[in-house]
Amino acid sequence: MIEKTEKAEIRQQGKNDAFYQLLVDTSIDGYALIDKLGQFREVNVAFCNMLGYSKEELLRLTISGIEDRGQDILKVLKNNCISDIFELVIDLRKKDQSVLRAELRSNSRGPEQGWILFLKEVVPEQENKVSKEELPHLLKELFNLTPNVIYLYDLQQGRNLFSNVSVGEVLGYSSMDIKKMKGNFLPVLMHPDDFNNFVKNIAPRHFELNDGEVLQHSYRMQHKGGKWVWLESKESVFKRDEKGQPTQIMGVCSNITEKQMYLHNLEQDRARMLAILDGIEDVIYISDPDTYELLHVNKSFKNNWGNEVVGKKCYEVLQGRTSPCSYCTNDIIFGEKLGKIHLWEFNNETNKNWYRCADKAVRWVNGKMVRFELATDISELKNLQAQVIDSNEKLKHSNDELEQFAYIASHDLQEPLRMVSSYSQLLAKRYSGQLDEKADMYIHYAVDGALRMQHLINDLLEFSRVTTRGDDFKVVDCHDVLGRALLSLKQKIDQTGTIIINDDLPELRVDAIQIERVFLNLIGNAIKFRKKAEKPIIHISCKKKGRYWEFAVKDNGIGIDQKFRDVIFILFQRLHSRKEYVGTGIGLAVCKRIINRHKGRIWLESTLGKGTTFYFTIPVK
Fold this sequence. Notes:
Blueprint: H1 4-14, H2 17-23, E1 30-34, E2 40-43, H3 45-51, H4 55-58, H5 63-66, H6 73-79, E3 86-93, E4 99-108, E5 115-121, H7 125-128, H8 135-145, E6 149-154, E7 159-163, H9 166-171, H10 175-180, H11 185-189, H12 192-206, E8 215-222, E9 228-240, E10 246-255, H13 257-279, E11 283-287, E12 294-297, H14 299-305, H15 314-319, H16 330-333, E13 342-347, E14 354-363, E15 369-377, H17 379-412, H18 414-431, H19 437-468, E16 474-477, H20 478-488, H21 490-496, E17 499-502, E18 507-510, H22 512-528, E19 537-545, E20 548-554, H23 587-597, E21 602-606, E22 612-619
Parallel strand pairs: 17-19
Antiparallel strand pairs: 1-2, 1-5, 3-4, 4-5, 6-7, 6-10, 8-9, 9-10, 11-12, 11-15, 13-14, 14-15, 16-18, 19-20, 20-22, 21-22
Helix pairs in contact: 17-19, 18-19, 19-23, 20-22, 22-23
């Protein structure tokens, strides 16, 4: 236990709270602050080292959680809270579960405030005892162990009375060198700009400090080698005269050069970034989400809304409003899309331009999350879109009229064509062989031409009806649709010995009659363009690919040259003469029109002489 005389000395020294505040982080004794529930609120490095915990671990614990043998330290502290300084020997359980016997001194901060604890490991008596003669030496060693500069400055004489050896590591000067400089110490070593600030703003505040109050300021000092070193000082009154005026200042000084260099580089990076933003033609601004004040705007912003806008409300400058915009995206970018980019478009209310905006919550230089917006002027694009929409409407109207014309024309041509065809056939029947050979040939041409014209008109009528006379889409089983198509082709299939293979087919929402027509045309073509020496083999399959069902109709026929893969889908386009293969050349055009109506696409893959595979897609939904 500490002797009574030593207690008196401790109390005397403890009166200077600022002195202990400066030494606590470099003390070799443990220091802790606990609240009224025993929860650790602050600990120093020595306290952590004694118990083997990190600071973060201890701040999650209570004093009761680390005591040994159920001493109920918290209860003892509460029972003695009226004491100025209370002392006891306790056993604490270290992190490695070993026991630390220590001398605990507590200073009550009041029943609602908690306690300040000082912890010192108990060692054998002969090793623990320190004489009064050894105490100054011990304090000196303590000062010299800390990497920070500890100094005592006389305000009346304007000179340094004491500094520890760390001053040599920080500034390159010994404490004796500093002492010899006397009154010239600060003006000689401190940067001129910082010295002027010190004389004008810092020095007067020394005389305004209350006991226990700490003054913090930063400045540059010149190293003995010539370089400038950034320092940060925490100072408090160490001694006063009989009138209570401060006469001596105790300070602890830290080297913050690396920190200042980091901040300087950060500021340079920020300046470069802002310069880049100014070079971007898009409008960029940063605003405070709480006050809506503009914190930064780029050159393009200023060109549109003026130079003196920083500090003003974004809704006032941008939209000419007196209150925040109802469509403001702050709730989105600071809520569900925090950390993500939100894209949207709006029509500015002041310049009437359209903008596509990219908004995101970002961290500003002061650490606060702010609104960042990049807005691209899309007014020209919007005008073009409007023109395209107008052109599409006109084109649709024109196509509708053309389809109606094709339907009406092909429908109205049916009757006169039937008359021409009937009388041509009647003429051929009655006078065939009675006239000369040329007359018979002319009659044959007339009959054949009328029949081909009739087929063309019927096919054209069917082509126009794809979009004008189509049925509603209904869910159907594609097996049934394929079955009806094969039934219609039964005679050709039987005559040619065609082999039909089909895989499982899905149920789809389609125009059943039109999809049946697609199967009819594709399978009919596969039979028509077969190889003479082989039986036709036709394989119908279907696979789901993403949002579409992909159908395939594969044959072993004569094939198609790849250079004609697009041409064959054009109306009335034929790759063979009528003598080789009959037909009007409209079947694949009808297929393409039907698939387009179903929001799909159709194409082929083929090798000449080795068969063809036609593919078409239909959306799953």
